[in-house]
């Protein structure tokens, strides 16, 4: 579990309260995206999540041993993110940073442009964490988020509340689909893309092109990208 200071917890609560007032306004007049009502997409998510959780269980012990050996503390990291129509949920990952990394965020320079945080050589990431991120193993616990329906295998990356409260009108469009473990961004650049407006354009492009076949193509492309370690750090 992530550890937050009292001030950080208060900020999260304040941001979520503000989002609760914004979300009905932003989405009340918007039609549902067809992907959110697709039974086939949901079935693929459930099957994929079950397979993914089996894989997660197989690698959890060695990851836990390596993580604790280098930096004793929790194995998992959780954080509040915004999903479909801005609804908040708790995302899960294998911990890749030092304990209490959130307290040190202000010491790290943001190298991204716009409402997103990225740093190529983030000093908070442990050596074990760098391997987990490079191989995307840190993302495996999100199969649980997919199974319970907070996320999909394919969609947009879920932003944090402090990012969303600063969104301009066109940015909200990216929240009309479920957040995904992969999507246009991950399959076509991963962490090498640091311009938020480019990410938004990719997310909107995904919504426009969405189909079951396109989802499957992005899943297979992501697998290829991960095994080739393209655009990861």
Task: Characterise the protein shown here.
With 233 residues, the chain is mainly alpha-helical. It has one domain. The protein is built from eight helices and four strands. Helix 2 packs antiparallel against helix 4. The N terminus is likely disordered.
**SSE sequence, one letter per element:** HHEEHHEHEHHH
Shape descriptor reads globular
Fraction of residues in helix: 40-55%
Quaternary structure of the protein: single chain
Q: What gap, in angstroms, lies between the N and C termini?
A: 23 Å
Number of domain units: 1
- State the secondary-structure class: mainly alpha
Beta-strand content: 5-15%
The low-confidence runs, each spanning 5 or more residues with pLDDT under 50, are 1-15
Radius of gyration (CA) equals 17 Å
Number of contiguous helices: 8
Mean pLDDT: 85
Lateral arrangement of strands in the main beta sheet: 1-2
What is the number of beta strands? 4
The major β-sheet equals:
2 strands, antiparallel
Which structural traits does this protein have?
233 residues; mainly alpha; two-stranded parallel ribbon; globular; disordered N terminus
């Amino acid at each position: 579990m992530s550890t937050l200071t009292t001030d950080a917890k208060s900020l999260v609560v304040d941001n979520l309260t503000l989002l609760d007032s914004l979300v009905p306004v932003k989405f009340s007049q918007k039609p549902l995206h067809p992907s959110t009502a697709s039974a086939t997409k949901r079935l693929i998510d459930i099957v994929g999540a079950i397979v993914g959780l089996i894989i997660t269980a197989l690698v959890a012990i060695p990851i836990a041993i390596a993580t604790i050996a280098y930096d004793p503390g929790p194995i998992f990291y959780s954080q509040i993110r915004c999903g479909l129509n801005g609804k908040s949920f708790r995302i899960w990952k294998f911990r890749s940073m030092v304990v209490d990394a959130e307290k040190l965020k202000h010491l790290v320079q943001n190298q991204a442009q716009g409402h997103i945080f990225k740093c190529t050589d983030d000093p908070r990431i442990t050596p074990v964490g760098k391997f987990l991120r490079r191989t995307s193993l840190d993302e495996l616990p999100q199969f649980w988020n997919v199974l319970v329906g907070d996320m999909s295998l394919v969609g947009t990356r879920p932003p944090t509340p402090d990012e969303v409260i600063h969104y301009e009108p066109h940015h909200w469009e990216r929240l009309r689909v479920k957040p995904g473990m992969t999507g246009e961004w991950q399959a076509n650049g991963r962490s090498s893309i640091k311009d938020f407006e480019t990410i938004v354009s990719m997310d909107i492009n995904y919504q426009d092109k969405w189909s079951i076949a396109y989802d499957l193509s992005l899943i297979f492309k992501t697998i290829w990208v991960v095994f080739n370690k393209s655009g990861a750090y």
